[in-house]
Amino acid sequence: MRQLFLGGARSGKSGLAEQAAINSGLEVIYVATAQVSHSHEQGSMAQRVAIHKQRRPSHWRLVEEPLALSQTLLELDQRPCCVLVDCLTLWLSNHLCGPSAGLDVALEQLVTQVSNTRHHLILVSNEVGSGIVPMGELSRQFQDYSGLMNQRLAQVCDEVTLAVAGLPLNLKTKPSH
Predict the structure, then answer these.
(1) Which residues face 62 on adjacent strands?
(2) What is the C-alpha to C-alpha distance for residues 98 and 18, in angstroms, rounded to an integer?
(3) Chunked mean pLDDT (size 10), the chain, 177 residues
(4) Which residues of 46-74 are buried (b: 16+ CB within 10 A; e: fewer)?
(5) What is each CA distance from 161 to 6, 38, 50, in whole angstroms?
(6) Which of 33, 41, 43, 84 is most deeply buried (CB count within 10 A of its CB)?
(7) Residue 18 CB neighbours (<10 A)
(8) The pTM is what?
(9) Are 15 and 171 in contact (CB under 8 A)?
(10) DSSP output for 63-125
(11) Percent of the chain predicted with pLDDT > 70
(12) Which residue in 38, 40, 52, 120 is the catalytic one?
């Protein structure tokens, strides 16, 4: 089972994804992509990270991986569990703002790994295409890659849910047999 939860800022997507992980009945491994290292973002990001830590069950295993997400997912795919990745847009930002230049390759590897995963995988990503087109080049690049990433992952996921005001809007549901 591969699930993708999309939504805007503070839409409730992470809470819905966390509930889906609990409902899986499996051991949950939480993969965090956030980096709290940039001084101008440190306070805000640290606060968001703290809120996520408070909300999730303490027995969940935490793996922090800001860049090598495909490799991490491959390694975690060795035994039955539920892997929750929060958040793909932070992973994307880490690649866009980081020293590595292989974002196209990293995105292709991620889509391939998600397609081939054997465990219950839950992905969280921001929907950033509903606003105006940003003026800055980096912001436009982020919006373009984010939209492309979400489209590609939605194609390979079994279920896709859009969170709006904390409510789930099912965009794609796995057919029942």
Answers:
(1) 30
(2) 28
(3) 96 97 97 73 60 79 95 94 97 86 91 96 94 88 95 98 97 84
(4) eebeeebeeebeeeeeebebbbebbebbe
(5) 6, 31, 25
(6) 84
(7) 22
(8) 0.91
(9) no
(10) EE-SS-HHHHHHHHTTSS-EEEEE-HHHHHHHHHHSS---HHHHHHHHHHHHHH--SEEEEEE
(11) 88
(12) 52
- Computed from CA positions of residues 105, 106, 108, 113, in that sequence, does the dihedral angle turn out positive or negative? positive
Structure tokens that stand for 144 in this block: 């373009």
Residue reference for tokens 């849910």: 161
13 CB-contact burial (10 Å; exposed 0-12 / middle 13-18 / buried 19+)? buried
Burial class (CB in 10 A: 0-12, 13-18, 19+), 136: exposed
Residue 38 is a catalytic residue: no
Rounded Cα gap, residues 138 and 121, in angstroms? 29
Q: Which two tokens stand for residue 160?
A: 């896709």
pLDDT in tens, 39-90: 445 566 566 656 666 777 889 999 999 999 999 999 999 889 999 999 999 9
Question: Which residue reads 């539920």 in tokens?
Answer: 82
